[in-house]
Fold these 3 entries.
Entry 1:
Amino acid sequence: MTDANNKHETVLVVDFGAQYAQLIARRVREARVFSRIVPHSITAEQIKQENPVAIILSGGPKSVHVDGAPTIDPAIYDLGIPILGICYGAQLIAQQLGGTVARSGRGEYGKAKLTTHGSSVLLPEEVADGDDVWMSHFDSITEPPKGFTICVSTPDAPVALMENFDQKIFGVQYHPEVIHTPHGQELLIKFLHHIAGCRADWTMTNLIQESIETIRLQVGNGRAICGLSGGVDSAVAAALVHRAIGDQLVCVFVDTGLMRLGEGEEVVETFERTQGIELIHVKSGEEFFDALAGVTEPEQKRKIIGEKFIRIFENAKQKVSDANFLVQGTLYPDVIESGTGHAAKIKSHHNVGGLPEDIDFDLVEPLRSLFKDEVRVLGSELGLPDEIVWRQPFPGPGLGVRIIGEVTPEAVEILQKADLIVRQEIREAGLEREIWQAFAVLADVRSVGVMGDERTYARPVIIRAVTSEDAMTADWAKLPYELLETMSSRIINEVDGINRVVYDITSKPPGTIEWE
Ligand code: XMP
């Protein structure tokens, strides 16, 4: 995927090790320019070989002053390639070119109001004094290097944007790549299109072509296996790998019986019939129900489902004994999440398709640098139906974590019906893409009601609908009352065994999105 054979223009995003580079790379892709992330140990000579159209120095750790703070070969400033430093990257430019980065002792985190100074080539025209920008820094540039002008400042950053137009070197202290900085993307576009003169002709189709080549190179004549969960990520990964290696890919779909109504058939329809992928469909609902009989403790349920899943997947895999590659739909946020060893375990996540550690496979992870919404675009380009591409996140253990108490076939049937109503009504109201997740939960209590002169004593359904950016935090969705009313009356009328519907108005934190 390099520009070594000059297939297309490349922007190099230099990684200083603090999770910013991928988001910047993604914004560059949105500006229709191909980007590649490189480590900060890259030399100016190596950069020259790559012949990039621009270089972006990303954010990084707290301070350029700490021992061992990452740096970059200063000869890059003499290459004549346009350079944009963001946050840490801007401080590094200041420090390396003779400006001053002061330990102010006072950081600036979150929103800050900007003040402009004179004209700027980089700043979008729409930006005005008093606009917000998103800050996250401890040190501040107090003195720009010679030849730079100060174009923007904020209360705690005297040099929030500096530029040296002659040398085409720019530094922004704030984060144009985050959505909280209004016109941030326009700033990046100005840098890429106007200053660096990029053609802006890169598309997802290029990405598909490049991924196909990379997958072919990796797999060669080997055989690959992919566990399908019905979710977007594994679906897109499978479709992409199938494009690359065709019959060398076999998919395994373990139908746990804990999926949403009609989901199993839909997976078979899409993959076997539409995409023509060889599919091993293991219907194993009964096995899961047997293993879950009498179990009510949430973590125990998750553990049982996870272990059973792996065992069944392993068995199915025996049928493809010559497979030496395993395809996984790992996305960039998954890479980050599993990389942060200090995060507290809230719930054990057993991802369908997730595998034991001792497995002897080479991983094929073609979506590793992408974000969810990019994967959706890719899925559509690959011809996957909207039902799969726009599917909301669904937990690996399925409805098993949405049934409080014992998971029985009857409980699953009730929940599947209620869940379908919730999703149908959300779609009908046109809210499907706005809502992160909307689903039903079956509670393990009974309450008294009256239906047609009869006293009832039955279970409630809880409707859960949340908005979220990334599921790390979430807000309960302010659904219109009329919509809630329709859901409620449909559930009561159409689902036997339910006599009450309640709406969960808890955000995350303190709640979680799922109930178990
Ligand atoms: P919580 O309930 O922890 O969920 O707020 C956050 C997001 O993760 C999904 N989720 C899971 N996904 N395997 C998964 O693949 C799991 O075991 C699992 N548990 C929760 C949940 O639907 C939400 O989007």
Entry 2:
Amino acid sequence: MAIIGRNTKKEYLQHIENSFTLTIAEMKNIVKDFHSEMRRGLAGLKSSLAMIPTYVDKPTGDEKGEYIALDLGGTNFRVLELKLKGKGKLSPPRVRKYVLDKRHISGKGEELFGYIAQRIKAFLRGEKARQDDVLKLGFTFSFPVEQTGIASGELLGWTKGFSARGVVGKDVVMLLNSALAKNGLGNIKVAVLANDTVGTMACLGYEDQDCDVGVILGTGTNACYLEKLSVIPKWNGPNTRTGHMIINIEWGNFNKLRRLDYDIALDKASENPGRQILEKMISGMYLGEVARIVLNGFISKGLLFDGLRSPIFNKRGHFKTEYMSRIEADCSKNLSEVIRFLKESGIRNSTFEDRCLIKRVCELVSNRAARASAAAMAAVITKIDPALSKTHTVAIDGSVYEKHPGFSKNIRTGLEELLDKKASKIKISMAKDGSGKGAAIIAAVA
Ligand code: BGC
């Protein structure tokens, strides 16, 4: 049966425009459903939001001392050494970045942790004396972990394409400790295990006492916030200094969303079907793939490049989110950067109409992502302060927020549509590479 009204390019694009547009009413619904999932998660009921107590209170800014930090959350990991000087001041950290390859990401967990321990050893080798001291380490581990203490927790499941064997269900600090011991680094004591959102929030919170939310919008996505212990029914541990605790929401798994066929196709083909539904709509690991699936639909209908197939749009994972950024940033009259990109990708001939269509689809996909992020952010802040009676600083980091053209502006517009003038109470501040530094700060809080 022919699909009435979707046969011409214009009609089909209109259909895509309508499908990808998140209306204000829909954003309001996201906020409502987010609140209800947050409450269920805090009560220990079934919810797509894990709402994990992190055992961490807000930093005071007075923390002092020397720490090392390990920041693991993607294909790169970093080792840092830094000094907290108190009064919210840090000395410039010594940092080294290392790359993980496929063998570490999808091989044996032991190999992954063994490699990390070796690199930490190499990092410290520069400083002979430090090899015998007791060194306190803050471990930022950017995957969903059910924490069992400030420095212990079990991996609930890998995300972002990781699949190293023998780690899910295990205490990741124990795995790191045993790799450190095997490498003669028994003098390192893991003082804290923290999610990257928590590190990011702690890093900014060290100098800005209004900071009560941390967000990552990068390869993966997530947020944390400061919650009152009295509204966390599932918490039965001790009290904290301020009666509050940072909660790792694991918002990437939020699933009360209107999904399109494209989202469903992406999810089915992913390494973790049925999980990380919000993450699959808004984060850098997936945005390019959503756009690719849509554009491939145009090609197979003969509505783009005269139906000519090419791997960049035809093969899963080939069209990266950074290509979308490049395409959307092209404001030249002829879309000449898009021409260049297409040529590099083996597509020699494109019409101006083809290029406009590609750019428009990329914009629709990223705009939906920014508006869904705004709704999730608004939900977290109004959970803390429904009337928005005070200023809230959101510490944010991640390539999508930082680099994708228009993303931060579209989030701001979304917040204003949802919260009107009160959106001005929300200050969003970049905490570039804050997750590792933050882990050291938390180690000091601990
Ligand atoms: C993980 C989170 C993490 C986020 C950002 C997600 O895939 O589940 O724990 O905070 O990525 O790195």
Entry 3:
Amino acid sequence: MQTATDINRGLQRDDFPLLGRVVHGKPLAYLDSAATTQKPNAVIEAIDAFYRETNANVHRGLHRLAQEATDLYEGARADVREHLNANDTREIVFVRGTTEAINLVAQSYLRPRATSGDEVIVTEMEHHANIVPWQIVGDMIGVRLRVVPIDNDGQIDLEAFERLLNPRTRLVAVTHVSNVLGTINPVKTIIKMTRQTGAAVLVDGAQAVPHMPVDLQDLDCDFYTLSGHKTFGPTGIGVLFGKAELLNAMPPYQGGGDMIQSVTWEGTTFKDAPARFEAGTPHIAGAVGLAAALGYLRSVGYEHIAKQEQSLLAYATARLQALPGLRLIGTADHKAAVLSFVLDGVHPHDVATVLDAHGVATRAGHHCAQPLMRRFGVPATTRASLAFYNSQSDLDALITGIESAREMFQ
Ligand code: 7TS
């Protein structure tokens, strides 16, 4: 159960050794979890134990360690399936992260199917990872990007979306949670609306899985992505979920070892998914660490996580809105604990630099969402992005730092 102490201290904060660091002589206030999350002991220990006790390659050795490593790697896949409530373990492809997952879908799903004049629908709030891969393939075959507008609070205009859907729509690609605005999008509605057409739906879940339970059978999207490092797991590992019938009908994205049935000089036949999309030695320790992270998240409990983060979000929103000259970008009714803002007369990078001197880690810039910055008429924002381990004192340090930036620059 959450208590008032959790908000003061941060939920399970002691599980995260790095959060005890001192930066510039100040206790670290880590408010950059949308860029990457810190790692709990459970994850660090799982990776450490893998390299100390089990390390071997997977799927190809008959010796004991190779079998154990394969069991751990495939066990991690089963854990991911369970965590996301996907139908089948074969629908879980390990990739480097969301970026690679979306590129895979662009190259292996869109490229072979689309013809000139087809359309891909995205929204104005997408990360570049959910824009550029469609443009790269689109430019090769003449596929057009159509963009769903958002309102001034950062919420998708569903009526405009409905008007954009048409028989030329091949794919709808939408973020579950915005990395800049925090908006939690009505993806179930978007998926249902898309189902009225023949188009497929990809949901970018990079910023969702760290904060909320995701039920893929309930959502019924065709593709879903996550990044391990944003979900309290290691960098270099992520997941592409794809419906089995779609994955098995898609050509491989990369060729190499462990993904073939047979290779001759005349040609090659491929294994079914997920192996056909996992050429070469995978990030075995990464998968093990990711499974540990998801298990850890379940042990903390998404109900407690949501309660903690929503309390912190409410507190931070009220404190920020009380600061004169501060404009919050992203004020949706339904949002995750991400606070982007601009301060009159002070460049967002200067704000972040002053904050750093106070031990407060934020990100400043366009957050890989340049079209979104243009939509709000700003070149950049400063962004504080939270996780359940944050505390009210992290947010107090943020406010103190912003006030000091204003004194220095205004
Ligand atoms: N999609 C969203 C919504 C994201 O926030 C990010 C990364 C990506 C895709 C790409 O994920 P990757 O793991 O493949 O890099 N977002 C951020 C961010 O907000 N700050 O740093 C990275």
